[in-house]
């Protein structure tokens, strides 16, 4: 079984010492409640719940999985009881308005619970996690009546929500969607169609499930411009909020899959089910982006969680497994061999996971400030600006952190040697569970196209320019006055190179549009390594300052500096390879005729 210890000190370091969250909370209305004591108490309670309740269920969930019987789904042993504790603890509405029974705390504070829960037991965490997306979507796009009808129960956690986009013939290309929604005389709609791969689509944790569903109305325009969004409850809800009759929504089956066995992945069939338009007709995909962006940041956390859990479990094994002698001389003379942590290659794997986990945490928690502003800024202009900034970062966070999370999980398995491949230690579960993260919520390829196409080129390089400016500003400031000037120099150098590669790529794309697609993955990975370098440079500055002042635990800050050094020396240079690849000819990807792909 895997072990999990909530990285409370690391979270505190990022929030308070690097990202200055206390000052950030002064800039939003909900921030007044988020005092240091409150943040500490929430972290401690979430840590306890994650360590004591959810972590022990991680293996149970994997081994038992969910079971389907005539449209009902039973979750693994212990999931239901844990969920009831979650509801009793008032966790679901932590960051949602008090008028709907939430606690009105900042969105960013919700990330702490999401990280801790997700690392302890990703499958379980998906039930309340998907529900958060449904809550945000109803809150942003719902009418007052819809909010009053659905938000209190969703905030309470006694109902959960789902995201119903995918159909058998289309996941990335939602323009091909076929589910239809026909208007009833009373203003509601009849929804007919089949959605597949719906996470938490059916389960036994709550009395109702609110499906947020994309479908087409009759005569709607072709493609993504003709898609609308609907609320479709599993059990109809009366005007007074009480439960009515069962709706015509049924779970047709659940998937048997590689990982996340504790979370139900469902076929959901709508057979003239009653639904209600959410937002405007034919503007459903835009509205659904509220859900997808929540889910994408959630999936970025899955990447961080995989790195963290992989590292935490590989470390004690590396300390306690003895194999051959260290190259630089015997380290454990009383043992038949030295602990494998003395071998550079094992350290490389451990440090890679550690650097990705801690760097990823800083990236996500900083981006979360934008989500606070999106919800709580004073003016619409400020809210829009925050949404745009977060929109730029989202594909980087989602794709880069899940790719690196998967690498960490693979490395941590490798640290165990053959013992990583068998079930006993739980290392293969980390990998299997993490594997989905680069696929759902937009594959890495789709995120890469979104970043380079919509967020960079179509945006006219505004957000990209602003992002580069932030890196240059930090770099030049610390090149002169910083404690780790070498990192600042590297940050500036890599940003300059990124700009150069981008210009060249755009020039190539003016002659051949495939140049963008051919470069997109490398462009995204370069963006990821560069962003993480910015946060490692920031963390190193803080750690060096604290060490110089003699404040706090020197071993903690020293470890930060050493991990930063590893990141800048061993991981950041990978960006050069991505730059090189990005800069090479489009023909090297697109030149081969389809006929010549054939195996002979
Ligand atoms: C366990 C699990 C849980 C899920 N949960 C949900 C859920 O809760 N709700 C929901 O609606 N869906 C869910 N999904 C569906 C998931 O989001 C989709 O599977 C995913 O978006 C990919 O869609 P697809 O499978 O149709 O692949 P496709 O869209 O067919 O893509 C196949 C490949 O082609 C690539 N590709 C496609 N188009 C392009 C392009 N234009 N440029 C470059 N590359 C391209 C993709 O990157 C991918 O590599 C889940 C899936 C799984 C397996």
Automatic annotation (TrEMBL):
Record carries keyword Hydrolase: no
Signal sequence, start to end: none
Co-factor requirement: FAD
Keywords: FAD, Flavoprotein, Oxidoreductase
Keyword Protein transport among UniProt keywords: no
Transmembrane segments: none
Acetyl-CoA dehydrogenase-like C-terminal domain segment(s): 497-593
Domain called Acyl-CoA dehydrogenase/oxidase C-terminal: residue spans: 282-451
Domain Acyl-CoA dehydrogenase/oxidase N-terminal: 40-157
Domain Acyl-CoA oxidase/dehydrogenase middle: start-end pairs: 163-272
Family of the protein in this entry: Belongs to the acyl-CoA dehydrogenase family.
Protein name as catalogued: Phenylacyl-CoA dehydrogenase
């Amino acid at each position: 079984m895997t072990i999990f210890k909530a990285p409370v000190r690391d979270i505190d370091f990022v929030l308070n010492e690097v990202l200055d969250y206390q000052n950030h909370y002064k800039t939003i209305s909900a921030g007044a409640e988020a005092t240091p004591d409150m943040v500490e108490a929430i972290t401690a309670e979430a840590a306890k719940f994650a360590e004591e309740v959810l972590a022990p269920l991680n293996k149970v969930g994997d081994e038992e999985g969910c079971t389907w019987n005539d449209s009902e789904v039973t979750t693994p042993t212990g999931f239901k009881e844990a969920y009831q504790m979650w509801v009793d603890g008032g966790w679901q509405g932590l960051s949602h308005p008090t008028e709907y029974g939430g606690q009105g705390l900042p969105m960013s504070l919700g990330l702490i619970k999401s990280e801790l829960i997700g690392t302890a037991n990703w499958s379980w965490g998906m039930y309340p996690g998907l529900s958060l997306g449904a809550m945000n979507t109803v809150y942003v796009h719902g009418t007052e009546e819809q909010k009053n009808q659905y938000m209190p129960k969703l905030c309470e956690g006694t109902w959960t929500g789902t995201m119903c986009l995918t159909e058998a013939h289309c996941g990335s290309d939602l323009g091909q969607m076929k589910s239809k929604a026909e208007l009833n005389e009373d203003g509601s709609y009849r929804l007919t169609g089949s959605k597949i791969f719906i996470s938490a689509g059916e389960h036994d944790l709550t009395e109702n499930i609110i499906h947020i569903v994309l479908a087409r109305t009759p005569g709607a325009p072709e493609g993504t411009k003709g898609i609308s969004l609907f609320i479709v409850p599993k059990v109809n809800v009366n005007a007074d909020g009480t439960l009515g009759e069962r709706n015509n929504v049924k779970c047709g089956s659940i998937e048997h899959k590689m990982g996340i066995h504790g979370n139900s992945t469902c076929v959901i069939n709508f057979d003239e089910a009653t639904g209600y338009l959410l937002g405007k007709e034919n503007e459903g995909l835009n509205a659904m982006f509220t859900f997808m962006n929540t889910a994408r940041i959630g999936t970025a956390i899955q990447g961080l969680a995989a790195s963290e859990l992989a590292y935490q479990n590989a470390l004690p094994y590396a300390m306690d497994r003895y194999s051959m002698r260290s190259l630089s001389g015997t380290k454990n003379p009383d043992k038949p061999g030295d602990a494998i942590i003395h071998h550079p290659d094992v350290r490389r794997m451990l440090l890679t996971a550690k650097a990705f986990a801690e760097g990823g945490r800083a990236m996500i928690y900083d981006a979360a400030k934008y989500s606070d502003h999106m919800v709580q800024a004073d003016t619409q202009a400020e809210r829009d600006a925050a949404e745009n900034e977060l929109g730029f970062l989202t594909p980087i966070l989602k794709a880069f952190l899940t790719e690196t999370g998967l690498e960490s999980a693979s490395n941590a398995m490798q640290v165990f040697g053959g013992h990583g491949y068998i079930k006993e230690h739980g290392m293969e579960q980390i990998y299997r569970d993490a594997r989905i993260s680069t696929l759902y919520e937009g594959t890495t390829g789709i995120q890469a196209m979104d970043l380079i196409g919509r967020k960079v080129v179509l945006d006219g390089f505004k957000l990209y320019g602003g992002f580069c400016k932030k890196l240059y500003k930090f770099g030049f400031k610390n090149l002169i006055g910083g404690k780790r000037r070498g990192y600042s120099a590297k940050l500036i150098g890599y940003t300059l190179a990124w700009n150069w590669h981008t210009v060249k790529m755009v020039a190539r794309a003016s002659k051949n549009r495939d140049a963008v697609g051919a470069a997109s993955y490398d462009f995204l990975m370069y963006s990821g390594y560069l962003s993480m370098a910015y946060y490692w440079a920031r963390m190193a500055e803080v750690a060096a300052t604290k060490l110089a002042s003699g404040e706090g635990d020197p071993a903690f800050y020293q470890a930060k500096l050493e991990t930063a050094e590893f990141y800048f020396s061993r991981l950041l240079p990978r960006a050069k390879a991505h730059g090189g690849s990005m800069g090479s000819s489009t023909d090297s990807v697109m030149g081969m005729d389809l006929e010549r792909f054939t195996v002979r």
